[in-house]
Write a structure and sequence with these properties.
The structure holds three protein chains of three kinds. By secondary structure, chain A is mainly alpha-helical. Chain A has helices at residues 2-28, 34-44, 51-61, 67-80, 93-128, 133-147, 150-165, 184-221, 224-231, 236-248, 251-254, 259-274, 279-288, 292-320, 322-326, and strands at 85-86, 91-92. In chain A, helix 7 (150-165) crosses helix 8 and helix 7 packs parallel to helix 12 (259-274). The termini of chain A are close together. Chain B contains eleven helices and twelve strands. Chain B has helices at 50-58, 91-96, 108-111, 118-130, 154-171, 177-180, 190-202, 220-237, 248-254, 272-277, 282-289, and strands at residues 8-19, 22-34, 39-43, 65-76, 79-82, 101-104, 208-212, 240-245, 257-262, 265-271, 340-343, 346-348. In chain B, the strands form two sheets. In chain B, strands 6-7-8-3-9-10-12-11 form an eight-stranded mixed sheet, with helices on both faces. In chain B, helix 4 (118-130) crosses helix 5 and helix 5 (154-171) crosses helix 7 (190-202). The model of chain B is unreliable at 135-141 (pLDDT under 50). Chain C is mainly α. Chain C has a three-stranded antiparallel sheet, with no helix packed on it. In chain C, strands 3-4 form a two-stranded antiparallel ribbon. Chain C is elongated. The chains are: A mainly alpha, B alpha/beta, C mainly alpha. Chains A and C meet through helix 1, helix 6, helix 7, helix 8 and helix 12 of A and helix 5, helix 6, helix 10, helix 12 and helix 13 of C. The complex binds adenosine-5'-triphosphate (ATP) and magnesium ion. Magnesium ion (MG) binds at residues 50-51, 106, 212 of chain B.
Chain lengths: 327, 359, 377
């Protein structure tokens, strides 16, 4: 098992490498570089910068170095936890990340739990009562869930909140907890604020997972090993729990690993729309202000969140499915 | 033991599948008997309904299947139970499944759940059927009497079930049964898995063991081993075996009596020697001709002409008439022949043997 | 598994054509049985027709603004007047504007003293159909007044008109993206499937990585990285490529490659290979028709993702920008919940987005069912 986890950990290195390269390319893509942006900013404040000063700035920030050298420096900074200072936000990016990443992760995790808690029982119900009223109801609901974009859900929800309370955004905590250190009460307050956004972020994933769950369970129930179990004379309810349900709980069977990137994207959209102080609004702000440096780092961190999520579901899979472990 | 009364009587069985494309009449008026302690071979081409027959007897057909007609009478003591009328998930049926009638499935790889250990999958059957019942009386006798079931007694039960399971695994020639208990199916080789499957079938000392092509998934040497094992087990356990195969060679080796099936019906039934020496049905004759002989001069293999009709669109009359070289126009393509006795224990469903013929 | 007595069907060469034809018929027949899919095809046909003939179907010019009718609500169509008298053609009442003295918000009431009959093929804003033919006839409209079936936006532009024009971008992005996905998927997946070995491993690892990364932040960042001075068309193309590249391509490649490997093992391919058919011939004749249906089903299912991507990006203000009209751009107006609550019709483009996406999902479902009766999803 440990060997398996180590192997998976090892395997995510290339993934992170590609993701970081992509993120860094985003930083490098726009014409001009950091120094250009800096000079523009200073000129805006009425300070002129001589060409010598510009050259020395270029050397200092290493913007003339080859791509890979700059990339290496950037990565080294991230590994050290030093993400530089955001020009647009006038704040240390590391500090922003430290403040907001936990909330992003919490919402993603919450959505992941919700996907499981909702999709698995409903999928089971639909499969064991195929073509029943409940089955049709959830199938239609599933199609709606897949068809309605998360931000539309979020806007509708915000609209509802606004019409009832007059509030135009959903905070992460009640006012009395703002700035307070984490406590049980604050955590519960957080959850009570965040479950609805998490539910919206989870909507698409849940709808998809219900469908996959139902289909796979229907397949599993016709598999030879289930017929064998029936032929043993096992009580049917016990049989259902022990064999097909157990199999359907296999995250691989349900395709849960594929759900995570979607959840992270969903979290982004929902948090921006609802104004929840996660990394998402900061990313949008950085992008709007053309602060690609910060944006690249944030894209990398957000993508890493998703990769870690996949890793976690892979390990879950290995716990549930012995075939993976022994491979 | 009453050797004359059949243990199992299938009469006029009809099983239909409903699918998107239409109704498949997989079994269409099938009748045969199984006598205690005999090996009944069922042979026929792929798709003729052998597996469906087996699943019907165990009442574990898939949800789109329906037994539309006929009876499957199983004799328990003086009682005759019609399996076809039992609720497939009811208690009465479950008491028969695994305990009285057990089955060895075609593909040992898919017949075991990949997520549970071998010991778990065999043991649950032993626990279900043997726990709490006094030693089943059959041979071989159980080493230790079963403990009382119950939550408090759980460890003892577990130990007893494990002992029973490893005993049966040892019986089928597993090298280290204690370890196999904790193995998952994918840890075993194909031959080992099939042995485990046989062990599972035998574990509750059934009176009928259905073996559905138990050796198709194995290579030739393993096939021979498994067949030998099954023969020995039958001798030890005194059960009847329904041996399903498409391989006449295996039938010749294993069976006492044979049922030849064609498209969900019996074409011919006879003792194994009679069948091979005096095949009556043109289909049986063609089958035997199409098997390569391993000894003797090389004969020309004659494949059976034509194609099997679709089970959704069956021809009228005798279902074989479209491929039969001796078909009698106006008779074979009009009415379906019933089984006609031609000798002691030998019956054939063919108009060629109907004296006077039909209208 | 080789079975000694299994009888093989002998296929005559003239059977083949029949087989292909019947497979298509089978497909159509099965698809037609999926009622929701058929209904969805009709719905999609309607919205695509709207996109195609936008100039004619939309009653106004999408950029024509009416400062006097800012945030005018949708107007009802009447068959009976206040005296209960029946009118044909149906008519509308023009809007009368008053300004709230306190909030300065415009308020609109129907001017019941005038009736404007709704007419077909009315003369209106001039347009250049597909940029080629000039015209000024619109499918419907009123003379001597303004009729906005779905209301007006912050500049007094007709929302229905803008939705119809916006569908051009929103609906074509999905199609173009899918085309890109289809061909690059065929190329990449085909390469992996044909060459196998290291190439296969590398390609598959890379597509796996793309599947592990959330697409939205990448889309967001890349769309911002586009040069500022690009035209609407260039931006549109770039966004489409970005959406396709990080959405459809990796999935399509995996499907193609998977099918390739599965089919390589199939009896009929092995048989054809034994018959001495070359690789290219083999691909064209056997593999291609075989996974085409799967590919189409998969791609139909990926269109909604692209539409969604464009809409989300534009909604955030990162995708297409103002002079361009797309459903996402239109929804930007509803980003402030206060505006939205006061002018709920600004949210109508979302209805079009949702209906289109659901319709595509149903069609994809139907195609998949028809292509592969054994797949249950
Ligand atoms: N679940 C099902 N749904 C529809 N038709 C079925 C189903 N199971 C079996 N059939 C049909 O019933 C017929 C008999 O199938 P069966 O599996 O009994 O054949 P078989 O004799 O065991 O063949 P084989 O030697 O290949 O195992 C076939 O025509 C098959 O298509
Ligand atoms: Mg079979």
């Amino acid at each position: 098992m440990l060997a398996y986890i180590l192997k998976r950990l090892f395997l995510i290195i290339p993934v992170l490498l590609v993701v970081s390269l992509l993120s860094f390319m985003i930083i490098q893509l726009p014409p001009g570089d950091f120094v250009d942006a800096y000079i523009r900013g200073e000129r805006g404040r009425g300070r002129t910068i001589s060409s010598e000063e510009e050259a020395s700035l270029r050397v200092r920030f290493g913007v003339n170095d080859p791509f890979l050298v700059q990339y290496g420096r950037w990565i080294a900074g991230i590994v050290r936890g030093d993400l530089g200072v955001s020009l647009a936000l006038k704040e240390s990016v590391s500090k922003i990340v430290a403040e907001r990443l936990p909330l992003s992760a919490l919402i993603s995790l919450l959505s992941f739990l919700l996907v499981n808690l909702i999709a698995i029982p409903i999928g089971m119900l639909s499969a064991t009562r195929q073509y029943s009223v409940a089955d049709y109801f959830f199938s239609i609901l599933g199609f709606l869930g897949m068809g309605v974009p998360q931000f539309i859900f979020a806007v509708v929800m915000l609209w509802g909140i606004y019409s009832f309370t007059g509030q135009a955004s959903v905070g992460a905590t009640s006012p009395e907890f703002v700035g307070q250190p984490m406590s049980m009460a604050k955590f519960l307050d957080l959850i009570s604020h965040l479950w609805l956004p998490a539910l919206i972020a989870a909507a698409t994933g849940t709808a998809g997972t219900i469908r996959i769950m139902r289909a796979n369970l229907l397949d599993e129930m016709e598999k030879p090993y289930v017929i064998v179990a029936r032929a043993k004379g096992l009580p049917r309810r016990k049989l259902l729990y022990k064999y097909p349900f157990r199999m359907a709980l296999n995250p691989f069977v349900v395709g849960l690993a594929g759900v995570f990137p979607g959840l992270v994207s969903g979290e982004l959209m929902v948090s921006i729309t609802l104004g929840i102080p996660t990394l998402a609004p900061v990313l949008l702000q950085a992008l709007e202000m053309q602060d690609v440096e910060t944006a690249g780092s944030l894209v990398f961190i957000i993508s890493t969140l998703s990769v870690v999520g996949i890793l976690v579901s892979d390990i879950l899979l290995a716990i549930v499915d012995p075939r993976i472990r022994y491979e | 033991m009453d050797t004359l009364a059949p243990l199992l009587q299938v009469q006029g069985l009809k099983v239909h599948f409903t699918s998107k494309e239409g109704t498949v009449k997989a079994i269409d008026g099938l009748s045969f008997e199984v006598y205690p302690e005999e090996v009944l071979g069922i042979v026929g081409e792929s798709g003729c309904g052998k597996s469906v027959t087996a699943l019907s007897i165990l009442n574990v057909l898939s949800r789109n299947a329906r037994i539309v007609d006929g009876t499957i009478l199983f004799r328990r003591g003086a009682e005759m139970i019609d399996i076809a009328r039992l609720d497939p998930d009811g208690e009465a049926m479950r008491a028969i499944q695994g305990k009285e009638i057990a089955m060895i499935f075609q593909e040992p790889m898919t017949a075991f759940s990949p997520l549970h250990t071998i010991g778990d999958q065999i043991g649950e059957m032993i626990e279900l059927h043997l726990l709490g019942t006094p030693s089943a009386g059959g041979t071989p006798p159980r080493a230790a009497p079963p403990p009382k079931p119950g939550l408090l007694n759980r460890p003892a039960v577990r130990r007893w079930v494990d002992d029973q399971t490893s005993a049966i695994l040892g019986k089928v020639g597993m090298p280290n049964p204690k370890e196999i208990l904790h193995a998952y199916p994918h840890n075993l080789s194909g031959g080992m898995r099939q042995r485990a499957m046989i062990a599972m079938g035998l574990s509750c000392n059934p009176r009928i063991l259905i073996a559905d092509e138990p050796t198709t998934a194995l290579d030739v040497t393993l096939q021979a081993q498994v067949l030998r094992l099954m023969k020995q087990m039958q001798a030890d356990y005194h059960m009847a075996i329904i041996f399903i195969t498409h391989d006449l060679g295996v039938i010749a080796e294993m069976a006492d009596r044979v049922v030849v099936m064609y498209l969900g019906r019996v074409a011919e039934t006879a003792a194994v020697d009679d069948l091979f020496h005096q095949p009556r049905h043109p289909y049986t004759q063609a089958l035997i001709r199409s098997v390569p002989k391993t000894s003797g001069p090389l004969e020309k293999l004659i494949p059976i002409e034509g194609t099997v009709p679709s089970p959704m669109d069956m021809p009228p009359g005798c279902k074989f008439h479209t491929r039969c070289p001796q078909a009698i126009p106006g008779r074979c393509d009009v009415r379906e022949p019933e089984l006609i006795p031609v000798a002691a224990g030998h019956a054939v469903a063919c108009w060629l043997y109907a004296d006077g013929g039909a209208a | 598994m080789f079975k000694r007595m299994r009888l093989r069907e002998t296929t005559r060469p003239d059977n083949e054509k029949f087989f292909v034809a019947s497979q298509w018929q089978l497909f159509r027949w099965k698809f037609l049985k999926h009622r929701l899919a058929v209904l969805s095809v009709v719905v999609l046909a309607l919205v695509y027709l709207g996109a195609l003939f936008a100039e004619f179907i939309a009653p106004y010019d999408p950029y024509a603004f009416q400062p006097t009718l800012v945030y005018a609500p949708p107007q009802a169509v009447y068959l009976f007047d206040e005296q209960g008298q029946f009118h044909w053609p149906p008519f509308i009442y023009p809007l009368k504007k008053t300004v709230d003295p306190v909030t300065y918000r415009p308020e609109y009431t129907e001017d019941r003293s005038r009736q404007l009959p709704l007419e077909l093929f009315v003369q209106g804003d001039p347009y250049k159909f597909w940029g080629l033919w000039e015209g000024d006839r619109h499918l419907f409209g009123v003379r001597g007044g303004v009729y906005s079936p779905l209301g007006k936006d912050s500049l007094g532009r007709d929302l229905f008109t803008r939705i119809v024009y916006g569908s051009r971008i929103s609906l074509s992005i999905g199609l173009i993206g899918v085309l890109i996905g289809f061909f690059s998927g065929l190329l990449i997946g085909g390469l992996a499937g044909l060459l196998g070995g290291v190439v296969d491993i590398v390609i598959m690892r890379i597509t796996e990585i793309f599947n592990a990364v959330p697409t939205l932040p990448l889309w967001m960042a890349l769309s911002v990285a586009l040069p500022q001075n690009w035209t609407v068309e260039e931006n549109y193309l770039a966004i489409t490529i970005i959406l396709a590249l990080f959405g459809v391509v990796s999935g399509a490649s995996r499907t193609v490659r998977g099918k390739f490997f599965a089919l390589k093992e199939e009896d009929f391919v092995v048989a054809a290979r034994l018959d001495g058919a070359g690789n290219v011939r083999l691909i064209m004749k056997y593999l291609f028709p075989n996974f085409l249906s799967h590919q189409i089903a998969d791609l139909t299912m990926s269109i909604p993702g692209m539409i969604l991507g464009e809409t989300s990006l534009s909604f955030l203000g990162l995708g297409l920008q103002a002079p361009a009209i797309s459903w996402g751009v239109l929804l930007q107006e509803g980003r402030s919940v206060k505006t939205l609550a006061e002018n709920p019709w600004l949210f109508i483009p979302a209805v079009f987005v949702v209906v289109t996406i659901i319709a595509f999902n149903f069609v994809g479902d139907g195609v998949r069912d028809a292509a592969d009766p054994y797949a249950r999803i």
